Amino acid sequence: MLRRCFLRRCSLSILITSVITFIIFTACLYHYEYKSMVDAGWNLPSANDTRTPNPQYSFAARVKECCKGEQQEKGETQEVMEPLKMLGVIRDRKDKYIRDIGFKNHAFNALISNNIGPYREIPDTRHKICPREPTGPNEILPTISVIMCFYNEHKMTLIRSINSVIKRTPAHILKEIILVDDFSDLPELEFHLLSDLHAQLHYDRLQYIRNEKREGLIRSRIAGAHAAEGEVLVFLDSHIEVNQQWAEPLVRAVKQENSTIAVPVMDLISPDTFEYSSSPLVRGGFNWGLHYKWITLPKGTLKKDEDFKGPFKTPTMAGGLFAVNRQYFKYIGEYDEGMDIWGGENIEISFRVWQCHGSIKIYPCSRVGHIFRKRRPYSAPDGKDTMKRNSLRAAHVWMDDYKEYFLKETNSARDMDYGDISARVELRQRLKCHDFAWYMKNVYPEMQLPGQETKKTASAAGVYQPWHSRKRNYIATYMMRLTGTNLCASVVAPKVKGFLKKGSPIMLQTCMRTRNQIWYETDKAEIVLDKLLCLESYGDAQVHINKCHEMLGDQQWRHTRNEHSPIYNMAAGTCMRAKGALVGARIVLDLCSKDDASAWDIVKVEETS
Questions:
Q1: What's the CA gap between 261 and 254, in Å, rounded?
Q2: Residues of the domain holding 67
């Protein structure tokens, strides 16, 4: 009996010990897993968070997962590309993943943006007539609140946008920077965003607002404006870089005339290469579908250097970048809160400001670089066409009988529900605004009604240069010969209407110095076959010829202009490579390396007259 009791007690002790050990082990394991998940960027809801957990890796964790176990050597690629000093070089699968996920989520090259880092110097693109002296101590300018709204923005691009404002704006006029996060759901923006911003920027006047649900650009900007304390509101997109002394011309303009909306010139930042380039002086118009378009300045506007200071009146503005007196913004009706997400708000506020006794002017001595993406990387939460619905609201409030032209242009909008516009109609009446006929006559007299054609329009059509006869500045002529062979990059393709077929692949053929092997390089780093079609990267790793679009990126190339050179595509981040050293072998894009299949001799060709 004693033995049985002893055995029972032992069994009970063992059981209790086992349970305690299991609990401790489970707790440790949970802590480890929890910490690992937080470090990796899992979206773990707090006690007050009722959102559905989003089991997505953070950006850093996804990159790590994509390339797990990879032992590829970077040194060779780095050595080959060192003479070209390219930021977008794909050195391994990890780089390729970052580039590809960047284009998917943001519609630009995130690899290059990461490599640029939180700040860079950019070219001063202002005209020589613009003053370079800093603001004098005796000049009193109003303070500004910079409002930057974003949804799922690339983090490094966002940081650089903010940093450019901090470093290139006089501290005594920069009251604050207000970030409005429109309920971003990318994991890298859900964890530690504020601490990352403060660590990178070291700026204590940064205010962060996060919407509790997706509101869209329009209502996000209103929220930012309500939180602002500066005398002037400056709205900026979240993928920009402001240039030298960008703020002063805008603030001076608003100070002198508080019913003026002051707009900078939008310089171009390539989404493929992040190359910063000057934009020509143009202004904003619209078509009868109420889409924004760029239009030329009136003839004779720029006769002497002094004219390049501006300002220039503009019928509409692109809407991403502008400065406005805070009180006037409230007086004029802010934005139409009945509009959803994005689209049409820039045309609506342009009509409203002009018709209600204000003005919109472009100030060329203020320059802000903007990434012009080729597509929007996100849509409305419910998939609705918010652009069309918002434009419909604008048309019904501001265009009077002219709205029929919009409805005919977008016939599907005629029966679309556009919500209650009574408050906006009452605003128009209260402000005693002009009718749309006044706007057409006094603000945008160049705008033609559908079906109208003037002699001026007809003659302008004759000035247009067809794609195959555009004038380009050619700086070199050569063949591209695979090193160690007598095989050259060639196009063998049928002709369509007298021209080689667009989309034809590049392959190796015996070097013959024929027209389908002679390439002309432009001062924009395009490589043009027979002065007609551009060498272009497309897809994941393909190379073909296509119509020259003059937007660079996938048609922009670099090489060392001598023997055994890589031929590098600026957008793809990879180099031309022959699939074999034989006639008919296709030429593709691959990681840049020193092997013979990726080395090319740039053989100069002397043109005969």
A1: 7
A2: 59-112
Residues 153 and 269 reside in one and the same domain: yes
Residues 495 and 415 in one domain: no
Residue type, 46: S
- Taken in order 312, 313, 317, 320, is the CA torsion positive or negative? positive
Q: Is the peptide bond before 118 cis (omega within 30 degrees of 0)?
A: no
**Of residues 530 and 380, more confidently modeled:** 530
- Asked whether residue 305 falls in the same domain as residue 408, the answer is yes
Residue 89 lies in a domain: yes
Residues 297 and 418 in one domain: yes
Q: What are the pLDDT digits (tens) for 310-362?
A: 999 999 999 999 999 999 999 999 999 999 988 999 999 999 999 999 999 99
Query: What DSSP character marks residue 479?
Result: E
User: What pLDDT is attached to residue 15?
Assistant: 52
The model carries a pTM of 0.81
Query: Do 155 and 266 sit in the same domain of this protein?
Result: yes
Residue with tokens 């962060």: 208
Highest mean pLDDT among 156-165, 182-191, 300-309, 489-498: 156-165
Block residue for tokens 């703020």: 247
Q: How many helices (H) and strands (E) does the chain have?
A: 17, 26
Does residue 498 form part of some domain? yes
Both ends of the chain: CA-CA distance in Å? 118
**CB neighbour burial string for 15-42, b if at least 16 within 10 angstroms, e if fewer:** eeeeeeeeeeeeeeeeeeeeeebeebbb
Q: What is the pLDDT of residues 201-255, one digit of tens each?
A: 989 999 999 999 999 999 999 999 999 999 999 999 999 999 999 999 999 999 9
**What are the tokens at 500?**
């080689």
